[in-house]
């Protein structure tokens, strides 16, 4: 089994303008052996995989930047999922609030830190009803 390189560089603290993942930059640079990373937009709009020997860069449709026409083929005909995404009250200007990673992982966003637990609970209930 592979071991994590430079675990002492992992930093899970929070800083203004940067979430927990962003605080891992020094660790990522050590993994990548460089501070040169592909752009999120290049990864998003490419049909190629982006990776090094040590890092796989995930294709990411981030919050309030995407619509149903960007759903991957494996999800684009799932009308229940599309309706679920379209009816999220957190959407802005018809752009989905949820995020999609690597064409398979749907991230609701703000679940555990949401001040409106009833919204999150109903959101999960609605999602579970379509994910048979």
List keywords for this structure.
2 domains; alpha+beta; two-stranded antiparallel sheet; 3-stranded antiparallel sheet; single chain; 132 residues
If strands are numbered along the chain, what order do they take across the biggest sheet?
3-4-5
Structural class: alpha+beta
Fraction in beta strands: 5-15%
Q: DSSP helix count?
A: 4
In the predicted model, the low-confidence regions spanning at least 5 consecutive residues are none
Round the mean pLDDT to the nearest integer and report it: 86
Distance between the termini: 34 Å
Order of SSEs, N→C? HHEEEHEEH
Strand elements, count:
5
Largest sheet: 3 strands, antiparallel
Q: Write down the overall geometry.
A: globular
Walk me through the structure.
The mean pLDDT is 86. The protein has helices at residues 25-32, 40-44, 79-86, 117-130; strands at 50-51, 56-57, 60-61, 99-101, 105-107. The longest helix has 14 residues, at 117-130. It is α+β, with helices and mostly antiparallel strands and 132 residues long. The protein folds into 2 domains: 1-37, no CATH class; 40-132, no CATH class. 27% of the residues lie in helices and 9% in strands. Strands 3-4-5 form a 3-stranded antiparallel sheet. A two-stranded antiparallel sheet has the order 1-2.
SSE topology sketch:
Blueprint: H1 25-32, H2 40-44, E1 50-51, E2 56-57, E3 60-61, H3 79-86, E4 99-101, E5 105-107, H4 117-130
Antiparallel strand pairs: 1-2, 3-4, 4-5
Describe this structure in a few short sentences.
The chain is an alpha+beta fold and 132 residues long. It has two domains: 37 residues, no CATH class; 93 residues, no CATH class.
């Amino acid at each position: 089994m592979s071991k994590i390189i430079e675990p002492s560089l992992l930093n899970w603290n929070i800083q203004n303008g940067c979430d927990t993942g962003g605080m891992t930059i020094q660790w990522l640079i050590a993994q990548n052996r460089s501070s040169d990373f592909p752009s999120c937009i290049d990864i998003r709009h490419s049909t190629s995989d982006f990776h090094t020997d040590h890092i796989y860069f995930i294709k990411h449709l981030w919050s309030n930047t995407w619509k149903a026409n960007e759903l991957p083929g494996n999800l684009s005909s799932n009308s229940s999922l599309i309706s679920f995404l379209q009816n999220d009250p957190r959407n802005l200007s018809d752009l989905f609030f949820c995020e999609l990673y690597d064409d398979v992982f749907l991230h609701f966003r703000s679940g555990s830190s949401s001040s409106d637990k009833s919204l999150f609970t109903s959101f999960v209930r609605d999602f579970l009803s379509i994910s048979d």
